[in-house]
Amino acid sequence: MRKSITLAFSLAVAFAVGAFSVEAAPKQFWDPAKKQYVTFGGGGAKAVNPKASSSIRRQDVKYTGPYGPNTIIVNTTERRLYYVYEKGKALKYGIGVGREGFEWAGTNTITRKAEWPGWTPPPEMIERERAKGRILPAFMEGGIKNPLGARALYLGSTLYRIHGSNEPWTIGRAVSSGCIRMTNDDVSDLYERVKVGTKVVVLR
User: Fold this and answer.
1) Does 129 have pLDDT greater than 60?
2) Catalytic residue of the set 151, 163, 171, 191
3) DSSP code of 137?
4) What is the mean pLDDT of the segment spanning 109-123?
5) H-helix or E-strand containing 146?
6) Of the ranges 29-43, 90-104, 150-164, which one carries the lowest mean pLDDT score?
7) Which of 25, 59, 89, 163 is geometrically suited to a Cys-Cys bond with 148, CB 3.0 to 4.6 A?
8) Catalytic site residue from 97, 179, 182, 187
9) In the annotation, is 160 catalytic?
10) Nearest-CA neighbor of 175 among 102, 125, 80?
């Protein structure tokens, strides 16, 4: 009898936790720069790259807003991204957003998806960082040290992307030059769920 009660209680706790948090099992990804597999995942699980996660866990939440399924909503004030995967349901992710002077809003679509994308800093960013004494490369090959992280979703014909990050501690902060940052684990999860053509709404 005692074992039955304990089992029932354990199942109830597991269901309650699952209702508020969605965590993926650790995943292996090929790092083209290191030419080896690296592990992200588990929303805090120990991994080859232990800094792949932030303290903001993704969650399965109810959604009552005006946008339909297969829509990404970026709430820059809240610093959260919602992916509406079916009517009334969404996945909620922590994000980093544009710092002061780099905020923006609008509606676009995903026009390209890339795994371990290379990074070509725009000329204005190169000049801006040079003025601070930081020299950016003309191009950086994809990999663990690349600021775009493990995955990138390109937004229309803009310079903006939803991408991973090699600085997961910046998630939840306004630090970027306008791009939407996610942890490598979270952006990899989102990447598998969305397709080219998915609608993206950025709110301020």
Assistant:
1) yes
2) 163
3) P
4) 95
5) none
6) 29-43
7) 163
8) 179
9) no
10) 102
- pLDDT at residue 34 is higher than 70: no
What integer best gives the mean pLDDT of the chain? 83
Token digits for 71?
């829509």
CA distance 70 to 15: 26
Full-model pTM:
0.77
Question: With b meaning 16 or more CB within 10 Å and e meaning fewer, what string describes 131-167?
Answer: eeeeebeeebebbbebbbbbbbbbbeeeebbbbbbbb
CB neighbour burial string for 89-116, b if at least 16 within 10 angstroms, e if fewer: ebbbbbbbbbeeeeeeeeebebeebbeb
Q: What is the DSSP letter of 140?
A: B
For this structure, is 163 an active site residue?
Answer: yes
Residue 90 has what pLDDT?
Answer: 98
Pairing label, strands 27-31, 80-86: unpaired
Residue bearing tokens 């725009």:
122
CA distance 114 to 187: 11
Dihedrals phi, psi of 111, to nearest 5 degrees: -105, -10
pLDDT confidence band for 20 (50 / 70 / 90): very low
Structure tokens at 56: 């903001």
